Amino acid sequence: MRIKDRDRNGWSRIGAFARRHAPLFFALAVLLPAHAGAGVILGFEAPSNSPKNEPAAGERSSASRFSLEGKKLRAEDPRGGVMIFDGEKQTLWTIDPKGQRYTEITEADAKRIQEMQQQMEQQMKERLKALPPDQRKEMEERLDAMKGKPSEAPKLTFEPAGETKKTKHGFSCRPYRVLGDGKPIEEACFIPWKETGLSVDDFRAFDALDQFFRKLGSQGGNQQNRIFADLLQSPGIPAHVAMIGPDGTLGAEQDLVVLKKENIPADQFTPPAGLKKESLFGKQPEPKM
Questions:
Q1: How much is the mean pLDDT over the chain?
Q2: Average pLDDT, stretch 117-138?
Q3: Which of 77, 178, 206, 273 could form a disulfide with 186 if both were Cys (CB 3.0 to 4.6 A apart)?
Q4: Does residue 31 sit within a domain?
Q5: Least confident of 60-64, 86-90, 166-170, 180-184
């Protein structure tokens, strides 16, 4: 579990993902028994006593929040931004409550965006043909690097690192040293699955969102899928995560502060009424009569 978006483990990347996508995610507190058909509410915050967890400018705190139900996901970030994804409708909304506006991306929009990306790429390739061979090769390599390439989630190994303990937020968890492809990446304390009343299936909205990002032609979608891919490998839900740097020192941290399963009102997965809808593609030309 990593805490920054460049890290390979998705759980700790959640905070960075939240800040990056329209502002989004977490805030958590109690573990409740499961209810059939209920959704999941969970979140993390960066401990204020950690010097490496200073909130970004404009953030009231470093807490973020997720609400999930089936293939639906709502994410709220520290600056008040909201992202909603409905996997059944294949629609993504990013909401700016302060600005009283929102944008919408449908499956048709995703197709259009991908086509636009392909057109831009083809136009660039045509322009590169006019360059000398050495310059053309250099520019092609740069473009390939910018596009990024699909990458598999790392194989995680979990080494027990002590006895069960309780976090300051009241979660009993078991500490592990987490290795990604054999390299230490985190120290994490997991609540065993059987003690959460939850299963990996409760988090499939993350996988549905990743599949939607892939339709946008975004390799970032693959990275976000690591949240779900990590869960498939993990011994439970992380109650505390501390990133391990390249030099072996501990870095930024995140704490689970709320985890519960409850019924979530349907209106939490749709943009509120009264907001101005803004086009992703700018002002569209008026149709000719």
A1: 78
A2: 82
A3: 178
A4: yes
A5: 60-64
Residues 6+ apart with CB under 8 A from 278: 101, 102, 103
Both tokens of residue 224?
């976000």
Nearest CA-CA partner of 188 in 160, 225, 155: 160
Distance CA 225, CA 208 (A): 9
Mean pLDDT across the stretch 210-235? 74
Q: For 51-198, list the strands marked E by DSSP.
A: 64-69, 72-76, 82-86, 91-96, 101-105, 156-160, 165-166, 172-180, 183-192
CA–CA distance, 224 with 10 (Å, rounded to integer): 6
- The single residue listed with the structure tokens 């996988």 is 207
pLDDT at 144 over 80: no
pTM tops 0.90, yes or no? no
Domain count, the chain: 1
CA distance 236 to 259: 12
> How far is 39 from 30, CA to CA, in rounded Å?
14
* pLDDT > 80? residue 14: no
Coil, strand or helix: which one is 17?
helix
